[in-house]
């Protein structure tokens, strides 16, 4: 049995409800399950109690999540989000492969 590919999801979350974020996450996960034939594990980047934390605290948690990932998946609108752009740059700097779903997931 081959080890599953661990994929972290990156997409804009600012100004969205938890329900909206979870819905987008599920849509992204379904696309990735199809693409990788269910041979992947999704690493959620939803920060618990984010409303009680600073943006920098939330971002630091997302980088921790990325440290566990084999691949970073970029969702719709990532290029308009400061956090997503930084996650993208960090992934590139540390040779974490990046896949782009922006044409497959719509708001």
Walkthrough of the structure:
The protein is an alpha/beta fold. It has a single domain (5-100), classed as Hypothetical protein PA1492 (Rossmann fold, 3-Layer(aba) Sandwich), CATH 3.40.50.10400. It has helices at residues 18-35, 55-66, 82-93; strands spanning 5-10, 40-43, 71-74, 98-100. Strands 2-1-3-4 form a 4-stranded parallel β-sheet, sandwiched between helices. Helix 2 runs parallel beside helix 3. The chain is globular and about 40 Å long.
Main CATH class: Alpha Beta
- Helix content bin: 25-40%
Give the CA-CA distance, first to last residue: 36 Å
Q: CATH topology, anyone?
A: Rossmann fold
How many strand segments? 4
CATH superfamily: Hypothetical protein PA1492
H-E string = EHEHEHE
Count of DSSP H/I helices: 3
Low-confidence stretches: none
Q: Strand portion, in percent?
A: 15-25%
Q: What's the structural domain tally? A: 1
| Shape annotation | globular
Q: Give the helix/strand class.
A: alpha/beta
What's the Cα radius of gyration?
A: 13 Å
Give average pLDDT, whole number: 90
Strand line-up across the major sheet: 2-1-3-4
Largest sheet: 4 strands, parallel
Q: Please name the CATH architecture.
A: 3-Layer(aba) Sandwich
Characteristic key phrases:
four-stranded parallel sheet; 39% helix; 4 strands; Rossmann fold
